[in-house]
Amino acid sequence: MQARSAAERREALVELYREVSACARCPLHQGRTKVVFGAGNADADLMFVGEAPGQQEDLQGLPFVGRAGKLLDQLLGEVGLERVDVFITNVLKSRPPGNRDPEPEEIDACKPYLHKQVELIEPRVICTLGNFATKLLTRSQRGITGVHGRPQVHELGGRAVRVFPIYHPAAALRSTKTLEELREDFRRLSELLEEPPPVPIGAVAPMAAIAVEPAPEPPQINLFD
Fold first, then answer.
1. What mean pLDDT is reported for the chain?
2. pLDDT given for residue 2 in this prediction
3. What kind and span of H or E run contains 84?
């Protein structure tokens, strides 16, 4: 299949946004104020996937705009990044009542949208924030405590992608120890982004690939110019 240009992928992402905005696959659509599709650079090398929208996200239609979002902004700034450099989304696109945990049928309903986002954005690294995103994208039931800060390679969106599980910023707001571990994991992001693309699952890496230089970064594009 011929690779799509950044502009073509951006157009497809906007179409996906329209589809998600009208989604009624699970009962959560009945109580939402706004769908929270995601925001940021639609051609980002780095993508963050959280759990579900909270109250402020539901009201504004944007991800991570509450206290956890402010901490995420701070951590990005500490490593020389801003929101415009990354794409941020959640496993669920609608807020669960009372900010309860996502239920399996809700995750199943939203999962195709997340996988399509990964396919269209083509990130080099996906940071999964907390248990739900980590378990979904790594296809493992191992909790975040045991896997945070350990990059993994998984096939997502038809490509081999580095998945980097880290703590959810909301957990870091409750624990100084967790905050320091999260901050340490953030410091590894620039190193991960500089690594060559991972070898597809099941493929044998040619010796020449070890020293290959990363491809030049494509022009950045934003989703809702």
1. 90
2. 65
3. none
What pTM, to 2 d.p., does this model score?
Answer: 0.88
Closest listed residue to residue 114, CA positions, set 83, 92, 96, 132: 92
Taking a C-beta distance cutoff of 8 angstroms, is the pair 53, 10 a contact? Answer: no
Tens of pLDDT, residue by residue over 196-216, are 988 776 654 443 333 344 444
Instruction: Write out the H or E segment, with its range, that includes residue 163.
Output: strand 159-166
Strands in 125-129's sheet, in edge-to-edge order, are 39-40, 87-90, 46-50, 125-129, 159-166, 152-156
Q: Which residue has the tokens 């009624």?
A: 24
Q: Which residues pair with 166 in a beta bridge?
A: 129
> Using an 8 Å Cβ cutoff, are 89 and 47 in contact?
yes
pLDDT digit string, tens, across residues 83-109: 999 999 999 999 999 999 999 999 999
Q: What is the dotted CATH code of the domain comprising 6-198?
A: 3.40.470.10
| Apex 218 CA angle, 217 and 221, nearest 5 | 125
- Provide the CA 124 distance to its chain's centre, in angstroms: 11
Residue 218 — pLDDT band, cuts 50, 70, 90? very low
Residue 214: CA count within 13 A, CB half-sphere: 13
